[in-house]
Amino acid sequence: MFSDSALIAMVSRGWFCSIHGGSERFISKVAEKLSNRSFRVVGVTRWIPGFPYPRAVHELRVFEDRRPRPFIASLRFSWWAAKVVNELRPDVAIVNCYWGEASPILISRDIPVIAVIHDIGLFRSEWARRHRVKHFLRTQILKRIVSRVDAIIVPSKAVEKDLIKYLGADPARINVLGFEGVEGPFQYVHEDNDWFDIVQVGRFAPNKGQHILLKAFKRIASEIPRARLWLVGGKGVDPEHIEYLNRALTMAREINESLGEERVKILVDVPSVEPYYRIADVCVAPSIGEEGFGLTIVECMAFGKPVIASDIFVETGVASSDRAYIVPRGDVEALAEAILHIYRNYEEAMEKARKGLEYAKNCSWDRVADVFIDVINKVLR
């Protein structure tokens, strides 16, 4: 059995709160939970100047990357991370396998490796396929990873299905969580004000659909005179993501100018998203691709708030019509109508929110840690 004094290396190219993203939050929280259970955890990550320095309750080995050029920088980190793991000689290495994260291939074969794969949406992504060389290289790396690692942990059946379909992964190696951990009050919490606050939390990237929500807000702003839109998220590293954030800022400025007041607010890399869940009257997740679960949806539910989610989150299993309003991905009109419906039928919306709250109560980080320990034990046996 797995010893309480065992050494676990946790590899992740980004660490929360240095990088504000769902996969970074996930791997960082798992590392914290395992550390709290007396395991010796060493996080292996990188820091890009201009971002907050990575912090953790356990030991961190940090690669300083002053030239974060996409893909080349990723491979440079993978080589360094594998070198660190090989020197540490841990009982097991757990790797947050972003697209193109090659460190599992470079880690010594006698060190057991568990890959955490949140999604492989690049096979269904117009943005990923647009970069043909990188898309090809990422595919080849992922194929080698799924054949090398001893086990794979995924958040949902949807990711498991994609791994088998696109990469030929061995189903016996895949472990489906079916949920992710969440922190929250696990009760309805709301700070009243004179506004109808619409909130989206998520990294600024084309797949997250902030531009869809901005267009929908422009459509409803005159029908809900006291509506405000809050877009809260991380700015990311990829130039394409930074360009997308600038596009969102431009759209927000144009909407505010047309309304004659600041009713769209964009907040980047905030220390905590909790204040925005507290004021939210409705939370929106309008993603149009590349999702493996939907952690922010459960966070909204943990505050007892109504949720509007695109249909991609039905595929991942985090949303259903009994606990959220479901709209077709990319459909601006359907999203605008859903927001208006909630505004006009708030008691009905709160009934869905109550069911969402009950769902969120089952999504604990301790349960996630239990699954990881079970998988580690299975690998070591």
Strand-pairing-aware structural class: alpha/beta
Major β-sheet profile: 7 strands, parallel
CATH topology of the largest domain: Rossmann fold
Question: Overall mean pLDDT score?
Answer: 93
Sum up the overall morphology in one term.
globular
* N-to-C span: 7 Å
Determine the number of helices (DSSP H or I, runs of at least 4 residues). Answer: 14
Q: Describe the strand arrangement of the main beta sheet, using strand numbers.
A: 3-2-1-4-5-6-7
Count of DSSP E strands?
Answer: 13
Please outline the helices and strands:
Blueprint lengths: L6 E5 L10 H15 L3 E8 L11 E6 L7 H17 L3 E5 L6 H4 L6 E4 L9 H5 L1 H17 L2 E4 L2 H11 L6 E3 L19 E6 L8 H11 L6 E7 L5 H21 L4 E5 L5 H6 L2 E4 L9 H8 L4 E4 L1 H5 L8 E3 L4 H13 L1 H15 L4 H16 L1
Parallel strand pairs: 1-2, 1-4, 2-3, 4-5, 5-6, 6-7, 8-9, 8-11, 9-10, 11-12, 12-13
Note the main attributes of this structure:
14 helices; seven-stranded parallel sheet; alpha/beta; six-stranded parallel sheet; 2 domains; 43% helix; 13 strands; 381 residues; globular; Rossmann fold
Explain this structure:
By secondary structure, this protein is an alpha/beta fold. The protein has two domains: 7-181 and 364-380, 3-Layer(aba) Sandwich (Rossmann fold); 196-360, Rossmann fold. The protein has helices spanning 22-36, 72-88, 103-106, 126-130, 132-148, 157-167, 210-220, 239-259, 274-279, 295-302, 312-316, 332-344, 346-360, 365-380, and strands spanning 7-11, 40-47, 59-64, 92-96, 113-116, 151-154, 174-176, 196-201, 227-233, 264-268, 282-285, 307-310, 325-327. The strands form two sheets. It has a seven-stranded parallel sheet, with helices on both faces. A six-stranded parallel sheet has the order 10-9-8-11-12-13, with helices on both faces. Helix 7 (210-220) packs across helix 12 and helix 12 crosses helix 13. The mean pLDDT is 93.
